[in-house]
Each structure stands twice: as C-alpha cells, then as structure tokens.
Structure to design on (567 residues):
C-alpha cells in the first residue's frame, strides 16, 4: 500500500488549525487536517454547524464571537483540505510520520489509512483547563467548568439543581454569564481570585487599554454577575467537595469562617493551560511561564518550534484566546508556505503585515489578564495531604511529598516509584501539580524541576489497532 | 443534574446496562448518559470508588466505559450510534499488583 504524503499536516480543527489550513490551501499546498473531535470548530466553536442547523435560536444567543466562527468554518469547508474528524494521533515519528486511529476502536477496519507522512507539521491542539486538585474533586457531581459549556453547545443540556461555580479566570465569568442567559439558577459563585490581584496587575493596565474591547467585555460580564442576584463570595480559599458517593455539600474558607452550602453540581475553573502532550512527545523545547505557571513550547514569531519543520499555533502555545489563535494559524501557515518555496520572504512579510498589526492589538490585554488571574501556588498544591493529585492511579499529595523526601526528585522517578502520571490520562491531569509539589519540597521553581517525559502512545489504543498499523 | 432544553430532532437507540435508551443523534455517549440521569460511569481499579465524567473534552479519562465489548473507551469522544452496547467500567477481575 502506498503511503500518503502531504505538504502540510495540521492537528486540530479549532480556530488556529482551520485558519492555517485556509491560508495553506490558498497557496496550493496539499493539506491534511486531523481532528480528534467528532465535529469541526475546536472547543470554542464546538458543534457550530449542528447548532446553526438544528438549534438556530440558541446559536444566535451565543454571541458575535461564536457567530464569527461560522465564516471561518465555511472557508475551511470550501478550501479543498482533506479533513478527517474523530482521529486520535497517538504517535509522531521524528521524520514526521504520523500515526492516527479512529476514536471509535470498533471502527478500526474503516478504510482510512492509519499512517501518513508530511513535509511540515502544525500542532494546533489548543488548551485545556488547569486541573484544580482539592478535597473531594473526584466525587461524581464535581466537574471542570468548561464541561457545562461543552454540554450546552453539543447537547443543549443545562445544569439544574444546586449549582456552584468556583475558581478564577475570564472563562469562569463567561460560562457563568452563559448559564445565566440559559436560565440556570446559580446557587453560589466562589471567587478564588486573591485580594490584591487587581493592584498587582495594574502596571499592565495601560497597555491593555489598547484593546479596550476585551476589558469592556470583562466589565460587562462582571456587572451582569453582580446584578444577577446570585450570592457571590470573594477571596475564597480552601474549597472542599463533600459527600459519600456523590457531591452533597461544598465547604470553603471566607475570612475566618468556614461556611458550608449544599450542592448538586460543583463546576471548577482555575485558568487554561496549553495542551503540550504532542510537543512533549516530539521533545520540542519548552519553557516555564511563571505568571500563568505553565509550560509552553519555545517558538519564533511564526510558531516554529525547536524541532525542524514543526510549528504550533493557537492556545497550545501561549494561551491567548480564539481571535489570536486564528491569526497565529494564518501567520504560521504563511511561513510554512515560504519554507516550501511557494512564496518569497518578501511576499510572506507583505502578506502578514495586517495580520501582525491585528495580532499586536488583540494580544495587548493579555499581560494584564494573565497577571490579574495569576494562579497561586497554594491553589495548585493542596494544603490537605490526603487530596488525590493523580486521579487515574489515585496518588495523594502525601505520597508524592514522602517519595520526594526519599530522594526521588523528578517527575519520572516519582512515576516509576508510585505510578503517578502513569494512568490513562498520561499525566494530563496531574503533571503540573506534580512538578509544583516537587518544586515546593525543594524550594525551587517548577521550571527547574521539569515535567514528565511524554511517550507514545499519546492515547490508549488497542492491540488490534496497533496490529492494523503497518 | 443536567436537563435538556429542547426536543431531540432525531434519535438512535443505545443499550446501557441492558436497558434501551432513545437518545439524540450527534451527541457523545457521555453526554447522552448524563442527559438520561446516569452520573456514575466507572468504578476505579485502585480503590473501587465511583467516578463520573469530569472534563467532557477528552483530557481526563474519567468517562471510561465498556463500549461494544471494548474496555477503556472515552465516552466523551465517541458519538452515539444505533444499537451501541454500553456498560459501566468495573475494575478488571484480575487484580493488577
């Protein structure tokens, strides 16, 4: 069987991936887009085609930014790109051989080849919510905040019963407002943004005023929340989810008090971090971004990583939101088109001039927001020692601390001792916390501790699927 | 815990723990089960405690189910299809030491 070879393979069909595909096709490249989700759009434009078609009134309620996604999707659909949905990439070889399988394993005998080669690779897999380990966070009834957004967009489902939102960050505000719009009664909003965060972020405010739209939107959301009548608690610490086999109550610390409220659903949010599984598997160089406490691949102005012919675009680099992601996709594709010889350096620069200007303007509010919603170390490392950090293998803070004290002081050595990070999620849920805990024990920066070595398979695959892979 | 806001436009029948459920086409297994009021998806291998889907976007692997006889399937990534047989994932019978 002949192996397909593409000029340009893009992983992820969110704003960055779609934009890159459109630009690359415009310049005649042979483009493959692999996406793990069942439908185009990424998380931000999730189920956008389905909503427009079947739930038009709700589609129009989702706001201008969401509607703008339809234009992008349409251009993407008409671009002549080869788009495969429901494909999980589980390994990328050093020479850019890409192994991918259907997300539905009983589909394994489908006619889609499971291996291809590419001259250039763009990783546009987006971001994920920063895991927020706290007592009881594995109880049924506790979910990541974006889960509510996913369920609304894909299935038209809204939370009912006693709903509590907790954490910090622009996305938490956005989702709270969206739930209010959908008629959800929120029982309590627990804001963990530390007191004084605003003052610390003020030096970044003048620059942020250049993209006033973002700030205005933020203030509007805050106003909506404040005037909605839902109980808002600020300066919250030490959140605990309580219950036997499911969530029953939420306890938290407000000043010197520890109130308890009854709850059916607790939605947690502590900011968004790049999904680095693929860039890690490829051993791209990463650096520690201390303000937002995450790792990001080191890139040049066009998203090119330290690995040859491999770039990133969108929120799997520095997290910057949908608009910046889309622009970064166009820019990265332009440089790839240049590297393939379809345009000259001058043509690339000319074509990218307006995009660069727009990028600068959309990025200007980011340093302010990153500082204002900076996660604190004590929100990532739980102060209660029996909290599960690794949800898959059920490893607690205490076990990690004790093992570090025995001398196993990097994530991989810990993993071989106590299995944290070894379960099906491959450290997606515990990786950042493990580095933070080791850093705390050693009193150094997580950037110095490093991260788990991420290996293939990036997603669990069956032996049957492996056998099919030529 | 979650309720559907509108009428389904087209449904398929899935079988969860031996019981037939009519669920809307185009959604994932995890969303369909939650929409029918099923919160617990699996019992963990280590302590046997119940778990529910957490992130709904393919990251956390808490929604692992047995789908059409295959274990460890991410319920939040797989769309429902007619006749699909789904079971809660129980710890393997052989204890892994």
């Amino acid at each position: 069987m002949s192996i397909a070879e593409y000029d340009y393979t893009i992983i992820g069909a969110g704003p960055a991936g779609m934009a890159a595909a459109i630009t690359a096709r415009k310049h005649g490249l042979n483009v493959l887009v692999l996406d793990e989700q069942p439908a185009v759009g990424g998380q931000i434009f999730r189920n956008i085609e389905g909503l427009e078609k079947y739930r038009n009134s709700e589609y129009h309620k989702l706001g201008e930014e969401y509607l703008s996604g339809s234009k992008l999707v349409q251009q993407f659909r008409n671009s002549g790109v080869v788009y495969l949905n429901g494909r999980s990439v589980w390994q990328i070889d050093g020479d850019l051989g890409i192994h991918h399988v259907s997300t539905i394993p009983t589909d394994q005998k489908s006619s889609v080849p499971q291996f291809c080669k590419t001259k250039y690779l763009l990783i546009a897999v987006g971001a994920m919510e920063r895991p927020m380990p706290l007592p009881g966070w594995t109880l049924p009834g506790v979910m990541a905040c974006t889960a509510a957004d996913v369920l609304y967009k894909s299935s038209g489902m809204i939370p009912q019963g006693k709903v509590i939102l907790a954490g910090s960050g622009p996305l938490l505000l956005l989702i709270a407002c969206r739930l209010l719009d959908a008629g959800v009664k929120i029982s309590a909003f627990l804001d963990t943004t530390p007191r004084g965060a605003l003052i610390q972020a003020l030096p970044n405010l003048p620059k942020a005023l250049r993209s006033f739209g973002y700030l205005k939107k933020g203030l509007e959301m805050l106003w909506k929340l404040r005037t909605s009548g839902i109980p808002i608690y600020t300066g919250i610490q030490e959140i605990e989810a309580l219950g036997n086999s499911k969530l029953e109550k939420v306890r938290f610390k407000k000043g010197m008090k520890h109130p308890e409220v009854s709850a059916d659903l607790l939605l947690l949010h502590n900011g968004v971090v790049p999904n680095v599984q693929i860039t890690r598997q490829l051993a791209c160089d990463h650096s520690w971004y201390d303000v937002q406490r995450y790792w990001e691949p080191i890139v040049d102005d066009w998203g090119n990583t330290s690995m040859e012919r491999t770039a990133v675009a969108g929120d799997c680099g520095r997290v910057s939101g949908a608009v910046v992601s889309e622009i970064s996709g166009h820019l990265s594709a332009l440089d790839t088109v240049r590297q393939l010889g379809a345009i000259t350096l001058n043509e690339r620069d000319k074509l990218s001039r307006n995009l660069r200007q727009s990028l600068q303007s959309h990025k200007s509010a980011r340093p302010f927001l990153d500082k204002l919603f900076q996660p604190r170390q004590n929100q990532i490392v739980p102060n209660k020692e029996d909290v599960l950090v690794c949800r898959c293998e059920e490893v607690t803070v205490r076990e990690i601390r004790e093992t570090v004290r025995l001398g196993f002081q990097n994530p991989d050595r810990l993993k071989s001792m106590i299995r944290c990070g070894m379960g099906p999620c491959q450290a997606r849920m515990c990786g950042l916390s493990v580095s933070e805990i080791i850093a705390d024990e050693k009193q150094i920066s997580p950037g110095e501790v490093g991260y788990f070595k991420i290996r293939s398979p990036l997603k669990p695959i069956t032996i049957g699927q492996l056998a099919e892979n030529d | 815990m979650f309720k559907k806001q509108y009428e389904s436009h087209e449904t398929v029948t899935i079988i969860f723990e031996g019981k037939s459920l009519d669920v809307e086409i185009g959604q994932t297994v995890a969303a369909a089960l939650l929409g029918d009021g099923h919160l617990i998806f699996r019992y963990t291998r280590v302590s046997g405690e119940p778990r529910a889907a957490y992130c709904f976007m393919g990251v956390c692997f808490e929604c692992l189910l047995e789908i059409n006889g295959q274990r460890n399937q991410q319920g939040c990534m797989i769309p429902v299809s007619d006749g699909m047989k789904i079971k809660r994932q129980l710890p393997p019978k052989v204890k892994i030491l």
